[in-house]
Amino acid sequence: MDYRRILLLLIALGFVSQGLVQGQETAVKKSKYDELTDGLKKQEGMWTIFHNDQKLLVDLSAAAMKKEFIVIPSISKGISQGDVLGGMSLGFGDDVIWAFKKSDEKVFLLQRNVRFRATDKSPEANAVQMAYSDSILFALPVLTKSPSGGLLLDFTHVFMNDDQEIGQMIGSGFRFMSDRSTWEKIKTFPENIEIQVNAVYSGSRQIDTVPNPKGIQVGLHYSVSELPAKGANGYKPRLADDRVGYFLTAIKDFSDKDDPEHFVRYINRWNLQKLDDKIDVSPPKEPIKFYIEDTVPVYLRPTIEAGILEWNKAFEKLGFAGAIKVDQQPDDPDFDPENIRHNTFRWLTAEAGFAMGPSRVDPRTGQILDADIIFDASFLDGWNSRWETFRAEDIARLAPNWSPWKAEGLSAFPLAHQSGHQNSSYCSYCQDSQQQLGFAATVLMARGIAAEGGNLPKELIHQGLKEVVMHEVGHTLGLRHNFKASAWKSIEEINDLESGVKEGTIASVMDYAPANIAIDKDKQGLYYSQTLGPYDIWAIEYGYKPFAAKEDEELKTIASRSGEPALEYATDEDTRYMDSDPLSNRFDLGTDPLAFIKRQIEHTTKLMPEIVDKTVKEGEGYQRARQAFGLLMSEYWRSIAFASRYPGGVYVHRDHKGDKDGQPPFEVVEAAKQREAMQLIADTAFSAPEINGVQLNYMSASRWSHWGTIDMLRLDYPIHDVMLRMQDMILTEVLSSTTLDRILDSEFKVAKDEDAYTLAEHLTFITSSVFSEWDTKEAAEFSNRKPLIDSFRRNLQRRTLERLGNVVSHGLGTPSDARTLTRMHLTTLKAQADNLLKDEKIKLDDYSKAHLLESAAQIDKLLNSEIALPSIN
């Protein structure tokens, strides 16, 4: 009871004197609740919050104690380094659900374990309860009871901490500094609260984008929202099918007997329902609405809006009118892009060259609750000093189906955190598109089509931007990558402008599409697909079509179309380094990747001799020529790498038994195709480069020495080093134990009356093409300026001998037949080297003679070394 108010009322009525009131005031003490909250700012909403700069108290009501809450962490303000980028979503694996449990004078904050379940009150439910438990994240002392019957708790350390491991993301040795961290802003709403921490980290390693590493500020945003009871909003989980590519919510339901491992797999999708399900075309009860943030350049907003709204074409076929809406960010102080209630398209200037479309999901049902598309502005900057020389990571990215994880024999980017899409592999589409845009700019500049200064033509920019926007929106709708979509049409069909505009150039925008640059500029089609493909329409039908009844049967009928050529599906785990299907690639085009490879090689070899004249104007430095040369080299080798996936290749299909147009799960790549690919490799990767060495004297590096620049060990172009690294990338693929194993297995998997590409043929082809000079028999005289074996081939042969040595010593688990065949070839090569050295009709140059002597000695060591046979347990 508020005695002071009663006394003031009595004064007003004249029943008591002022002096009596003053005496009473000294007698009335403040409650503990008032003492604890005195001087703190109060905000009411889902929770009642009291706070100052570094303290946060929550009045948690009795009703809130019984509810569950989803917690969405993100970076609201980053440092433009590594994964610490503004707009990035945090949290790995399932999204986090909080619940509360009172125990004596404490309240435990729990993270729900939602991966395991069973039907309530069943024997399995008791077993699940004994086997699995929630996690206790915090024990919050009860400060006091609140006047409304709730509990006053100190939540400061719940949010003021480094549980999101931002310090580790910044770099080793960076520590969270609680004494300098404050609340940036706190907002409360009826169904959610938004808390932003200005988190300070301290370390010693200098970072270019911050003035002092001892006080790095990172904006860390938490969006906490009430979770509706399952089924309360009319959402019905939809079962997944491995023929259609959706992100998954996987739960083990021990009451479910259909799956031997008890997994129930739901696709991740929005709660999209018709406003009136009795009519054919109806608006949704609640559309999927995206806000374009004010940070997006004005001239790009129409293209971005068009890319988002393009997905309405798929929903219209299902009877939804305006399923997706787009609006500009409102001028509202309560609008937060990080708020789970807002889906946003955000534009950053972190110079990371990436885009991503993460979504946040109810881990109990698969319902998508929030999505934010993030674009980095440097995506549009194809010209970059990174192409002036090839670092190890740049070369690794050219390997076939490079992934962020370390590949066999290659140095790749190890990512501490997968900041890509929920339950997915890392998405590097936008980042790697920089190379494609730069390559396109080089080709178009040489043709006189590029804008002043080599800038990208507006048509190319807007087409590329719209295609990547469609890709990222697809992720926010629940769709995974489909790396087989680019094999739908031939190169000729892709360049049919009329059909490209009408139906797209690739079967799905969920592929990684390269810039389509035709050899004949008069036959140029779209640079990038500008509409959804047939796979996209089909996948959305599976995920969002309303069903009145028999949903499981209807879904199986839809998925059974997977055998149609336009609906082929292969995703990240089908397209990793050393995976087998040569039609499942990142940044290829056409039904025949070998035809695409030849087209790209023709582009690069034609332009290389002209690169200085075409890219550098009078009065300019030569750096642009070096960047253009690097872009051409990267595309040349990236394309050849696709050919290295054919030897031992296996086409992979996801069709089920009985599907219309169904195919077997695996089909060995045609022997003729494997031979064609190896011949292409021999003619390109294993041959001396068609490069004018004098031209390299004009490949000037950027000569700036300050923060933000690349420190080059050599200013002049290291052509031999680059070439050997590229060749080794190809050798790694064609001589890997996995490739050799597959070739041997495939001999058995092909019918006896059919042609097969054999392991014996493969090893013979490699040794005969790489060491062809060693079989020279005709009389000839060579000099050090015109050697028998040129410097690039000498390097290639040395590296090949090292690789063959690994095979002989059973390195990396190669098959025994590969070992014995390789020993045979090494014996032949030793004899050829000896014969060349002894042949008096052939006058060898010093380089070739020394090379043959060293190689012969190396082969002797390999043949006489102990064989590391596999142990038998």
Structure, described:
The chain is α+β, with helices and mostly antiparallel strands and 873 residues long. 34% of the residues lie in helices and 15% in strands. It has 26 helices and 25 strands. Strands 1, 2, 3, 4, 5, 6, 8, 9, 10, 11, 12 and 13 form a 12-stranded antiparallel sheet that branches. Strands 16, 17, 18, 19, 20 and 21 form a 6-stranded mixed sheet that branches. A 3-stranded mixed sheet has the order 7-14-15. Helix 1 (3-13) packs antiparallel against helix 2, helix 23 (759-770) packs parallel to helix 25 (816-838) and helix 24 packs parallel to helix 26. It starts with a helix and ends in a 9-residue tail after the last helix.
A few lines on this structure:
The chain is an alpha+beta fold and 873 residues long.
- The share of residues in helices is 25-40%
Average pLDDT number? 87
Gap between N and C termini, in Å?
81 Å
Radius of gyration: 32 Å
What is the overall shape?
globular
**Unreliable stretches, pLDDT < 50, 5 or more residues?**
404-425
What proportion strand? 15-25%
Number of helical regions: 26
Largest β sheet strand count, sense and barrel closure: 12 strands, antiparallel
Oligomer: single chain
- The helix/strand class is alpha+beta
